[in-house]
TrEMBL record:
Primary role: Oxidoreductase that plays a key role in early steps of protein N-linked glycosylation by mediating two non-consecutive steps in dolichol biosynthesis. Acts both as a NAD(+)-dependent dehydrogenase and as a NADPH-dependent reductase during the conversion of polyprenol into dolichol. First catalyzes the NAD(+)-dependent dehydrogenation of polyprenol into polyprenal; polyprenal is then reduced into dolichal by SRD5A3. It then catalyzes the NADPH-dependent reduction of dolichal into dolichol. May also acts as a positive regulator of starvation-induced autophagy.
Molecular function per GO: oxidoreductase activity
EC number: 1.1.1.441
Name of this protein: Polyprenol dehydrogenase
InterPro entries named among the record's database cross-references: NAD(P)-bd_dom_sf, SDR_fam
Primary location group: other
Amino acid sequence: VEFLYCDLASMKSIRQFVREFKAKNCPLHVLVNNAGVMLVPERKTEDGFEEHFGLNYLGHFLLTNLLLDTLKQSGTHSHNARIITVSSATHYVGKLHLNDLQSRCSYSPHGAYAQSKLALVLFTYRLQHLLTANGSHVTANVVDPGVVNTELYKHVFWVVKVVKWMTAWLFFKTPEEGASTTIYAAVSPEVEGAGGCYLYNEERTKSADLAYDEELQRRLWTESCKMVGISDKASRLP
């Protein structure tokens, strides 16, 4: 195990991390996009992005795109490289405000969090479409880990914290249990070559209807490229 520092809330840090990783000339067979914050008060990343959208979504969007060439070189016909992105059941109630992705007009911690998780699902489906169109030996899937007992809940109201403390043993998954579907997506032979899937409890299931809107996927991708400052070559693909 080797640790390389990467702050997903900083575009500069992400680019520095990618340079350091590529300098090692290592293959990249599995990329797990798992960083996240939840229900934080209204605040911005160093790049000026609303924190949920900037860290949960845009950080992973940029990181994945900068590592795509390495992933493509690492995948083979019999062993695809795999991209696993961790979303949440919260995406089912999320709405994507393309004209206000930074939640400037009306900030709601719940709304901003749900939007960031919906964006991750839309991103995964669009990414898989582009990978397939390019004939790449890379798959992209999105995972719902379930309700997991972690520090992600530190910004919820104190009453919720008390209820969580009292009921976690009954209703919440342990971190190990919460990681199981991500691990399944990363290594299981059952999903070899399968991309564009929404996985929950190690099974393929249906995501929100809105996530299958291909025009919305395309528009979010194009806008995301502008926001993180990368070329949108993919817009020329079908």
